[in-house]
Amino acid sequence: MTDGPSRCPGFYVLGCALRELRESRGMSLRELAGKLGFSPSSLSGWETGERSIESGQLGWILGYLRVSPAERQLLMQLHRQSERTSHVEILTPGEPSLQDVYERHALRTFQWAPHVVPDLLQTSAYAHAVLGHVLQADEVDQEIFTRQVRQLDQDRRHRHTVLLGSAAVNHELVPPEVRHAQRDHITALADRRLVKAGVVKENPASAGTTKPFVIYLTENNVSTVVLPHEHTAVYLSDSVSVRRYWSTFTALQENSVGYGTLADAC
Question: Strand 223-228 relative to strand 108-113: parallel, antiparallel, unpaired?
Fold first, then answer.
């Protein structure tokens, strides 16, 4: 791995995390660079994601900042896949995912959710309805708490554009009154301009996919596509895949109606 120019999305997300860790310790860029013997320009390049950082340099920074073992492991994992244009992550129940890092540091999220409302947008009642058949009630409560922590960790400038399938809006496991409350919740988020939501009325197969996906956009306008599966998550950042999924999202959006007309859409 070389200390050269980088346009890999993982490095931008990793850089955001490093900057946040440094600032949370009350240290200036020049101060941290001096403590560790790095040039300020190198540290600045790593924090902006414009320059790649070696694993030893990253480990030294994380050690000096006394980052928790769990977060250190996640950031080192992100570093290992940062220069790859595709990466498959094996998901472990109860363990943080690389997607949490993207979610935390991306400024924009564009999501196609054909089957279920995205977890960070779910009400607690909706979560209990869809998870209650596979988890105990206290386990669902713990999952809801974890989601709330993730929401607090997001950049305050973050905005979420989500397209829902009619199956997500009218989920068969969710009682009608819970569905109505869920609609009101997303509408309230939309009124606060935190979320822009739409519903795809027709069969989305013609638009290119019936599978869920998320596009994370960084402050530097670099995109990463994430394809969630039951036990894995696939990360794509090559230009061909990114263009294809942006095109798919645009096609789905053109076939959607605003969330304000949700009752008429489904």
Answer: unpaired
Instruction: Give the length of the chain.
Output: 266
Q: Where in the chain is the domain with CATH 1.10.260.40?
A: 9-81
Task: Identify the bridge partners of residue 88 per DSSP, sorted by sequence position.
Answer: 234
Whether the full predicted model's pTM is greater than 0.90, yes or no, is no
Q: Taking residues 186-208, report their average pLDDT.
A: 78
CATH architecture of 9-81: Orthogonal Bundle (1.10)
Give the mean pLDDT of the chain: 85
Q: CA-CA distance, 16 to 26, in Å (whole number)? A: 16
Query: Is 86-265 a domain of CATH 3.30.870?
Result: yes
Q: Are 32 and 43 in contact (CB under 8 A)?
A: yes
Alpha-carbon distance 164 to 166, whole Å? Answer: 6
Q: DSSP secondary-structure letter at 205?
A: G
